[in-house]
Amino acid sequence: QVQLVESGGGLVQSGGSLRLSCAASGISISRNDIRWYRQSPGKEREWVAIITSGGSTNYADSVKGRFTISRDSAKNTVYLQMNSLKSEDTAVYYCNVLTPRSYWGQGTQVTVSS
């Protein structure tokens, strides 16, 4: 059974940093593309970043240069390092994998105060 568990969210001031974790079980993160999404109140869920099975990464324009996605295969965990946070980064952050069935974690809240 595939399970994704996000953690690391919290309250941070504008300009600060957080590192989110997505711990996976039931799949190998190094053999799957893992994506981060976020959803703010009243808005649709938006894609943030991807790390492919081959290790390539890509980012939404809104976070490029500030966020970094990475993985630790030994821990079967994907990370999202978020720097220079802005108030508009406030959202619930989710990780996702397509196996091809789509699996989501429960999300972790990130709140950036201005």
Fold and architecture overview:
- The protein is an all-beta fold and 114 residues long.
- The protein is 0% helix and 54% strand.
- It has strands at 3-7, 10-13, 18-25, 34-39, 46-51, 57-59, 67-72, 77-82, 91-98, 102-104, 108-113.
- Strands 2, 4, 5, 6, 9, 10 and 11 form a seven-stranded mixed beta sheet that branches. A four-stranded antiparallel beta sheet has the order 1-3-8-7, with no helix packed on it.
- A hairpin with a 5-residue loop joins strand 5 (46-51) and strand 6.
- The radius of gyration is 13 Å and the shape is globular.
- The N and C termini lie far apart (40 Å).
- The mean pLDDT is 97.
In short:
This protein has 114 residues and is mainly beta.
List the SSEs and their pairings.
Elements: E1 3-7, E2 10-13, E3 18-25, E4 34-39, E5 46-51, E6 57-59, E7 67-72, E8 77-82, E9 91-98, E10 102-104, E11 108-113
Parallel strand pairs: 2-11
Antiparallel strand pairs: 1-3, 3-8, 4-5, 4-9, 5-6, 7-8, 9-10, 9-11
Please supply descriptive tags for the structure shown above.
single chain, 114 residues, mainly beta, 7-stranded mixed sheet, 4-stranded antiparallel sheet, 0% helix, globular
Order of helices and strands: EEEEEEEEEEE
Strand content: over 45%
Tell me, what's the shape?
globular
Taking the alpha carbons of the first and last residues, their distance comes to 40 Å
Instruction: State the share of residues found in helices, binned by percent.
Output: under 10%
Instruction: Provide a count of the helices.
Output: 0
**CA-based gyration radius:** 13 Å
Largest sheet: 7 strands, mixed
Sheet/helix structural class: mainly beta
